[in-house]
Design a protein that fits this description.
Layout lengths: L1 H12 L8 H9 L4 E4 L8 H9 L3 E5 L3 H14 L6 E4 L5 H12 L5 E4 L1 H4 L2 H8 L3 E6 L19 H8 L4 E5 L4 H10 L6 E4 L7 E7 L4 H11 L4 E5 L3 H13 L4 E4 L5 H12 L5 E4 L12 E6 L6 H8 L9 E7 L1 H10 L5 H19 L4 H8 L13 H4 L4 E3 L1 H13 L6 H9 L4 H5 L16 H13 L3 E4 L5 E4 L1 H8 L5 E3 L4 H16 L3 H18 L3 H4 L2 H10 L4 H4 L7 H21 L18 H11 L4 H8 L3 H13 L7 H7 L2 H13 L5 H8 L5 H16 L1
Parallel strand pairs: 1-6, 1-7, 2-4, 2-5, 3-4, 5-6, 8-13, 9-11, 9-12, 10-11, 12-13
Antiparallel strand pairs: 14-17, 15-16
Helix pairs in contact: 2-3, 14-15, 19-21, 24-26, 24-28, 31-35, 33-35
């Protein structure tokens, strides 16, 4: 059997040997047994059912989630064989004539693999047809879509087993690149294959370099600099929203980078063209939502950048896994801010409670990964149930720039005893709150504010306690019971540690709030490469603010002045390339600033460097125009948000961008309806007297009587009236 398999492998695919578990998986399928395959991206999952299909009688049915993925796989299969009929797909993109051709090829015995979407599989006409043919096996690709705990949950996937029972039994192989032990069990249970042979490959991709950077307002500039340092290398940039995809792609194009956008909202022809251009190396960078990449076999992607932190570590792992599939260089760069995850958590409101709980746990694990100073590889593999024993992987930011280790023996003893006292019934955040003495309603309800452990660790920060608990998991003192919403449980070694304590060295978590402040200061220093000009611009702004009787930030904010001191705009057109300066603001205030910059450049013989200029893109989106028209007609902001399919937060983002760029908007009709006059005046007075318009500062100064939405609305009103 082995020699025959290698002969067939060489004949069809041109390889002399199998990778990893491929041979054992194929043998198991040929023997008619069920298989569960957990194999990282690039490990060769497709071959595990492609080769058996050519060797077995009948047609193999591959259930796949995406049309683009099906087409890619069918094209690949046809390239290995003499006839196009060897592989087909059936989905909503085919007309009746095309479907008739597919059925003819299957009935004639020419088709060895048929790809179907789960939505097609449940249609009665297809069930009847499939019952009439010989099926060699069923393959469920991207099987994590079955699980509610998976990052790409598809409800239709949970109906696969009943459909197979209707059509007729055959060996079943389920394949996925990302599954925690919880997700794996969920998949096997739902597919009725708990007795299947499990083939689990290591999740470790040694060639991938992992790095997390704080996400600041300079992210676009950081990405442009990174891509230009990696000129000519293929890369994927993932954003969570279509809006960010479109915006970033335009900014990259404006700065001479060969980039295109890709998301599910684009028309099929454009999306297909952009994907093909990337595969054929006509473009080097693709900016995409997670709609891009499933099954895309481009081996030489050299970097994957996450503009936004993904919703789960499964999604993160799968997306970063598209880098370096040929075993070569693969850099995985992620920009992180806790605000992104809080925004994602807000979007869950209104969903079923169980779904919200799952979503929150997945987000929590993502935050833990980003904020930890432990080896990225160790924490990522731990999440997938795999132990990484090396102290230093040598290929992640935390290992190349290790944080200082500190002794935490006493803290671990305290944490373990506290968990025992709480009877192992609570999650890590709750345990930390008890230790540092946070008197939440939940803690008082359970009377744990009266526990001897309440506040026992208040001399140590919450971030430190989180690091102790997480690293105690890596050391096998604690475990997380995923089945019961992530409750923290003691392992046998914990009881031994309490009896006989020993050294327990840990590294503290990163404090991203501090890092972001430091980064902002660093950027200010480096961005304002001309400190003399920067100082002169601030003086001019202060003089104008006195003359016009408005706070300085109303004229131009500091980041705009920093950009002017870098890019040296000397015309109003160039001024509009400065972040935060739209046509209206440039026309109103720009002339004096341009004149000052021009004089400074002439007097100091300054060559305005093109390569330092990060060009922004004039935003002419239809949405902004529609929002302006709706506000002119006094449509409720809530109704505008609903009609545009965006959240209220996102609508406020759009309104702020419109006003900050110099367009006047009158929101009085909406503000008068939702706010007391006294409330409105208090906030308005704050901005009139404040030296800054920073939201966090305003919320802190104004106190709990005002909501974030109220403060943002009055800030918009103030800006519109005073600056525009």
């Amino acid at each position: 059997m082995e020699s025959r398999l290698k002969i067939e492998l060489k004949k069809y695919f041109g390889f002399d040997s199998f990778k990893g578990n491929q041979e054992a998986i194929i043998n198991n399928l040929l023997q008619g047994k069920d298989s569960f395959v957990l194999m990282p991206t690039g490990g060769g999952k497709s071959l595990c059912y492609q080769l058996p299909s050519l060797m077995m009688e009948g047609t193999g049915i591959v259930i796949s989630p995406l049309i683009a993925l099906m087409k890619n796989q069918v094209d690949a299969m046809r390239s290995f064989c003499d006839t196009d009929g060897v592989a087909h797909f059936i989905n909503s993109s085919l007309n009746k004539a095309a479907i008739d051709l597919v059925k003819h090829d299957i009935q004639s015995g020419a088709t060895k693999l048929l790809y179907v979407a789960p939505e097609s599989l449940i249609k009665e006409e297809y069930i009847e047809f499939l019952r009439s043919i010989k099926i060699s096996f069923y393959a469920v690709d991207e099987a994590h879509c079955i699980s509610e705990w998976g990052h790409d949950f598809r409800p239709e996937y949970r109906r696969i087993r009943p459909m197979i029972n209707k059509i007729g039994n055959a060996p079943l192989i389920a394949l996925t690149a990302t599954a925690t032990p919880k997700v794996q069990h969920d998949i096997q249970k739902n597919l009725g294959m708990l007795d299947a042979h499990v083939f689990k490959s290591s999740f470790n991709r040694p060639n991938l370099y992992y790095e997390v950077r704080p996400k600041t307002e300079h992210i676009d500039k950081d990405i442009i600099k990174y891509i230009k340092r990696n000129e000519g290398k293929a890369g994927i940039i993932y954003c969570l929203s279509r809006k960010n995809v479109e915006k970033l792609a335009k900014v990259l194009q404006a700065n001479g980078i060969n980039a295109v956008a890709y998301h599910a909202g684009m028309d099929t022809a454009t999306r297909t063209k952009n994907q093909d251009d990337f595969l054929m190396e006509r473009i080097t960078v693709i900016v995409a939502t997670i709609a891009f990449g499933m099954g895309i076999d481009k081996p030489d992607v050299r970097f994957v950048i996450h503009y936004d932190m993904p919703k789960s570590l499964e999604g993160f792992y799968q997306e970063t896994g598209r880098a370096g599939r040929d075993g070569g260089e693969g850099n995985c760069l992620t920009f992180y801010t806790i605000k992104d995850l809080k925004k994602l958590e807000k979007f869950m409101q209104g969903k079923p409670v169980a779904e919200q709980e799952i979503g929150r746990q997945l987000l929590h694990e993502t935050a833990v990964y980003a904020e930890s100073s432990v080896c990225r590889r160790k924490s990522l593999l731990y999440y997938f149930g795999e132990k990484y024993t090396k102290a230093n992987c040598g290929n992640c930011d935390n290992c190349l720039h290790p944080a200082k280790e500190v002794e935490a023996k006493d803290q671990l003893i305290l944490a373990l005893k506290c968990i025992m006292e709480l009877k192992e019934h609570f999650k890590s955040d709750y345990i930390v709150n008890v230790l540092v003495g946070v008197k939440s309603s939940e803690i008082t309800e359970h009377l744990h504010d009266q526990s001897v452990f309440f506040g026992a660790g208040k001399e140590t920060s919450a971030a430190f306690w989180k690091a102790v608990i997480r690293q105690a998991m890596y050391a096998d003192y604690l475990t997380k019971d995923v089945e019961h919403y992530g409750l923290i449980k003691l392992l046998p070694a914990a009881y031994e540690f309490i009896k006989s304590p020993k050294s327990f060295m840990i590294v503290e978590n990163r404090n991203y709030d501090e890092i972001i402040q430091e980064e902002a200061l660093d950027h200010s220093a480096s961005t304002a490469i001309d400190p003399v000009l920067f100082s002169m611009l601030k003086d001019l702004r202060r003089d104008l603010s006195k003359q016009l009787d408005v706070p300085p930030y109303v004229i131009f904010q500091d980041p705009s002045l920093e950009a002017m001191a870098t890019m040296y705009p000397v015309t109003l057109d160039e001024m509009q390339n400065i972040p935060g300066v739209g046509a209206g603001k440039a026309k109103r205030y720009g002339t004096k600033f341009c004149e000052l910059i021009k004089i400074h450049c002439d007097e100091n013989e300054i060559d305005r460097p093109e390569d330092l200029r990060v060009r922004t893109v004039a935003n002419k989106s239809k949405m902004k125009v529609a929002i302006i028209h709706s506000i002119d007609r006094k449509v409720s902001l809530d109704d505008i948000a609903v009609s545009k399919g965006i959240s209220f937060d996102e609508l406020l983002d759009e309104i702020e961008a419109i006003v900050y760029s110099g367009t006047k908007l009158n929101l009085d009709y909406y503000i008068d309806e939702i706010m007391d006059e006294d409330h409105m005046y208090d906030i308005y007075d704050y901005f009139s007297e404040s030296e800054t318009d920073h939201l966090d500062d305003a919320l802190y100064e104004l106190g709990d009587d005002f909501t974030e939405d109220e403060v943002r609305l009055i800030r918009v009103k103030f800006f519109s009236e005073m600056a525009n």
